[in-house]
DNA sequence: GTGAAAGCGCTAACAA
DNA sequence: TTGTTAGCGCTTTCAC
């Protein structure tokens, strides 16, 4: 009987048909997938853990592209993709415990995320995307430090010394405002930490006192946040010549704010992003492009690749500086006040 | 022991802690979710069946919004969302059989989809979104016929009589070209069928011979398809004054094609869409808006709503005619050839 | 508060 | 080729 369903080649077609017909007539709904999973120790699904509300994943263009890549890899392997409900608000970890999956992909969560801890307790393979970095675990992501350094040197080359930084949340607790150097260094989001560290290093080398550079943090990742962060930066120091944003979304918000204020980009103000989403390209944002879809696909492949040629494995993705039209040499103070 | 994990209130905290500590020390990874599912007959997850490749779901704005709504509902109920790999190419239904879920949401699949048949065999609740309509099954969707009729009457009111139609795939088999009246009536995608039927009815009442109206079908749902469909329509009958598209994506493609040809919209040609995605609103497309996010949320709620006040239930969503800037009265032939 | 035992539905191994 | 059986790991029930 089991054979009739699972190994059509092990018995004659006619017998198979007879068995199946009889089964259906008796109201047998087919093998129970859960019981089968228990027996075979395979769920045929991959779990995805995000640090945000599930619905957020469908609002952030970078997250969507990541999902697409991951879905592609799962589909190739005939696996399902289980989105695990793990809002940052509720500490409830049960959803991780309940997930019937063969492994987890963890996408960009903070070091101290309780859901991550729950995932790590499960006896299944785990692949981390972006953050955090954990020993002995497969990892996929871009070289954030290197990419940011290239961007920073581009801006330094243009002549920028007085800058402001707009960044995404640095820890699980909400803090919409200035992030002290201490908070920057202790950020529990590894990616944000490296980007800020790389910026600090590059600009320090160029003679900038990093402690004087305003870094403004926003909890929600949205263009509104980007706009208000830009506004705050311009208030703190109206003399800054560039706003460096750690994501394109924040940068797009900054562009909006600049337009609103009549500040010309890049003439009066340089604005840069990070990620390389479609909208960024459309408006010609100067940014760093990372292959987000590839990231998702690589994560899926890594997890589902059964031939294990020595774990842990790292996949470092190529990034590319996109010199758009939102970065230019700063104008001198006189130029800014009295025109060119 | 089971109690320690599942019913913290049934035993003293200290005992609970001791049990859990000992368990961890012995290397016990926590209760196996699959075995638990087998026993409790609950998977804590909802399956989603689409008719497209999984990755497609992350490219179509309407699908993304639907997913967001569905994810929202799942999250509220603490359920996971399992995306089931069911490409239209492979007839392989095993992924449906393997899915450990408490129910399925079926999103816009054709009447004769084999994966749908597999879903219906599973002894779990099913909610259908958009299509097909199946007796005794919960359903969520807009009033396609009504909405299209309002749109058609709008165009008829403007004076359009010589029109062309650009529509999405009508059956599982690829057919990029003209769709005969017969093919229209036999479309296995219920939604496309109703929209075409409603158009035919409205325009027939206005004195148009529907058999003479060119209806062009495209298998792939993309702006490129929309553009080529528009091109084909204009080739078949250069005198048409309006192109009605059964989706915004197709309409956006048609707009591109018009721009490429120097055909002015709406002066020389009226173009309409369906769905009301963000991009459509941005460019001012005349279209029908349906609450896509709400559709996803309603589907999830319907499936997860345990209090069953009499199934099957239908949720009919409100639609709204968006009179944008891409529809206007047709110009007479002379005007079109010799200018206003 | 604790322990023992049945059984969820399946698959794989083995026996006939 | 077909039939039988053990046991996957859990929860629930019931006896202690």
From TrEMBL, chains A, B:
<keyword id="KW-0238">DNA-binding</keyword>
<feature type="domain" description="HTH lacI-type">
    <location>
        <begin position="1"/>
        <end position="40"/>
    </location>
</feature>
<dbReference type="InterPro" id="IPR046335">
    <property type="entry name" value="LacI/GalR-like_sensor"/>
</dbReference>
<dbReference type="Pfam" id="PF13377">
    <property type="entry name" value="Peripla_BP_3"/>
</dbReference>
<dbReference type="InterPro" id="IPR028082">
    <property type="entry name" value="Peripla_BP_I"/>
</dbReference>
<keyword id="KW-0804">Transcription</keyword>
<dbReference type="InterPro" id="IPR000843">
    <property type="entry name" value="HTH_LacI"/>
</dbReference>
<dbReference type="InterPro" id="IPR010982">
    <property type="entry name" value="Lambda_DNA-bd_dom_sf"/>
</dbReference>
<protein>
    <submittedName>
        <fullName>LacI family DNA-binding transcriptional regulator</fullName>
    </submittedName>
</protein>
<keyword id="KW-0805">Transcription regulation</keyword>
<dbReference type="GO" id="GO:0003677">
    <property type="term" value="F:DNA binding"/>
</dbReference>
């Amino acid at each position: 009987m089991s054979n009739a369903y699972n190994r059509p080649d092990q018995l004659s077609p006619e017998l198979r048909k007879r068995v199946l017909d009889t089964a259906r007539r008796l109201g047998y709904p087919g093998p129970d997938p859960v019981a089968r999973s228990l027996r075979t120790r395979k769920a045929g699904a991959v779990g995805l853990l995000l640090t945000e509300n599930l619905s957020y994943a469908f609002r952030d263009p970078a997250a969507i592209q990541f999902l697409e890549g991951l879905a592609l890899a799962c589909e190739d392997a005939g696996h399902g993709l289980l989105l695990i409900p793990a809002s940052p608000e509720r500490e409830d970890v049960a959803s991780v415990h309940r997930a019937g999956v063969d492994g987890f992909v963890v996408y960009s969560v903070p070091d101290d995320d309780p859901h991550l801890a729950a995932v790590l307790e499960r006896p299944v393979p785990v692949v981390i995307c972006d953050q955090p970095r954990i020993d002995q675990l497969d990892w996929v992501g871009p070289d954030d430090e290197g990419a940011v350094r290239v961007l920073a040197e581009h801006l330094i080359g243009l002549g920028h010394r007085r800058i402001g930084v707009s960044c995404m949340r640095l820890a699980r607790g909400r803090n919409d405002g200035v992030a002290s150097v201490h908070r920057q260094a202790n950020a529990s989001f590894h990616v944000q930490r490296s980007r800020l560290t790389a910026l600090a290093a590059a600009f320090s080398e160029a003679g900038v006192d990093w402690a004087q550079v305003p870094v403004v943090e926003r909890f929600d990742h949205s263009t509104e946040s980007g706009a208000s962060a830009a506004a705050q930066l311009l208030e703190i120091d109206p003399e800054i010549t560039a706003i460096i944003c750690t994501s394109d979304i924040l940068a797009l918000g900054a562009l909006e704010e600049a337009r609103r204020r009549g500040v010309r980009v890049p003439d009066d103000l340089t604005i840069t992003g990070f990620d390389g989403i479609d909208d960024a390209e459309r408006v010609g944002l100067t940014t760093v492009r990372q292959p987000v879809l590839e990231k998702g696909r690589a994560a899926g492949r890594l997890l589902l690749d059964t031939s294990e040629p020595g774990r842990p494995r790292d996949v470092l993705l190529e990034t590319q500086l996109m010199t758009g039209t939102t970065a230019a040499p700063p104008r001198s103070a006189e130029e800014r006040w009295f025109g060119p």
